[in-house]
């Protein structure tokens, strides 16, 4: 019997347990997020003594962090610049929290990022000028914050972008004609800002777009007739602007 027990103990000792082997820089970046966003008071907090693979909302694949999903988790504070060390991150979803401060420029070093979702927070300041570096980005969802300033010119370099949702901020300036570069865009939602100027005719080149929401801004001039070329549009929401005439009489989309 004793020999059997000893055999079982030795067997267990050699069973390979699965622990994540993420780099020190990635783990340090996660700990910085925890510290900067008041991790001790999160709704679902992290046990820093446990293996990272057990941390709520963190996805690890092939020993690298690929996703952080912590919506509605009582995150309070500013994003740390060390977030740039999560170099394999594809999804960052921190929506419905109380994040303040600016979007750090360093976030634009995450070139693998496909989904950046910081909606329903208290983020202020301008969009990073180098946001166009996120060449793999598909979803940029930043609605209901306190963002200001113009849409950066590099934004129009995001050719893989499918969703641009930055409504309910205080963005100003115009929509550039280079919006034609966003050929994969399906949702263009910029309503409830203070954007102005004439809508560029190049919007009519967004063949894949299904929703255009630009209401409650200060756009003027005529609604470009080219919008009629967008046969996939199901939602067109452009009221409460300063167009020359009623936009409904200028376009023919059902």
Quick structural summary:
This protein has a single domain, classed as Leucine-rich repeat, LRR (right-handed beta-alpha superhelix). 11% of the residues lie in helices and 22% in strands. It contains three helices and 17 strands.
What does this protein look like?
The protein is of the alpha/beta class. The chain has a single domain (21-250), classed as Ribonuclease Inhibitor (Leucine-rich repeat, LRR (right-handed beta-alpha superhelix)), CATH 3.80.10. 11% of the residues lie in helices and 22% in strands. It has a 9-stranded mixed β-sheet, with no helix packed on it. Mean pLDDT is 91; it is low at 1-18.
Radius of gyration equals 23 Å
Count of alpha and pi helical runs: 3
Distance between the termini: 81 Å
- Count of individual domains: 1
Structural class: alpha/beta
Please state roughly what percent of the residues sit in beta strands, choosing from under 5%, 5-15%, 15-25%, 25-35%, 35-45% or over 45%: 15-25%
Instruction: Please summarize the sheet with the most strands.
Output: 9 strands, mixed
Global mean pLDDT: 91
Under the CATH scheme, the architecture is Alpha-Beta Horseshoe
CATH class assignment: Alpha Beta
Largest sheet, order of strands side by side? 1-2-4-6-8-10-12-14-16
**Which series of helices and strands comes N to C?**
HHEEEEEEEEEEEEEEEEEH
What are the segments in which pLDDT stays under 50 over at least 5 consecutive residues? 1-18
User: Which geometry do the CA atoms define?
Assistant: elongated
CATH topology name, in short, is Leucine-rich repeat, LRR (right-handed beta-alpha superhelix)
Total count of strands? 17
CATH superfamily: Ribonuclease Inhibitor
Share of helix, binned = 10-25%
């Amino acid at each position: 019997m004793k020999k059997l027990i000893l055999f079982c103990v030795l067997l267990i000792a050699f069973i390979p347990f699965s622990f994540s082997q993420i780099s020190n820089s990635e783990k340090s970046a996660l700990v910085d997020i925890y510290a900067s966003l008041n991790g001790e008071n999160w709704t679902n907090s992290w046990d820093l003594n446990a293996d990272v693979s057990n941390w709520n909302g963190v996805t690890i694949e092939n020993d690298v962090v690929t996703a952080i999903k912590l919506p509605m988790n009582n995150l309070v504070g500013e994003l740390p610049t060390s977030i740039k060390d999560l170099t394999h991150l594809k999804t960052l979803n921190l929506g419905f929290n109380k994040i303040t401060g600016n979007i750090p420029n360093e976030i634009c070093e995450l070139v693998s990022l496909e989904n950046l979702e910081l909606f329903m927070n208290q983020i202020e300041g301008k969009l990073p000028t180098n946001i166009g570096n996120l060449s793999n980005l598909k979803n940029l969802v930043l609605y209901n914050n306190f963002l200001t300033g113009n849409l950066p010119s590099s934004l129009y370099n995001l050719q893989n972008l499918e969703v641009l949702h930055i409504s309910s901020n205080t963005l100003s300036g115009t929509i550039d004609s280079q919006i034609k570069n966003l050929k994969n865009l399906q949702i263009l939602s910029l309503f409830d800002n203070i954007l102005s100027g004439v809508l560029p005719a190049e919007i009519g080149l967004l063949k894949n777009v299904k929703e255009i929401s630009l209401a409650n801004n200060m756009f003027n001039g005529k609604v470009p007739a080219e919008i009629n070329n967008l046969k996939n549009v199901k939602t067109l929401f452009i009221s409460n602007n300063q167009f020359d005439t009623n936009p409904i009489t200028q376009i023919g989309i059902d």
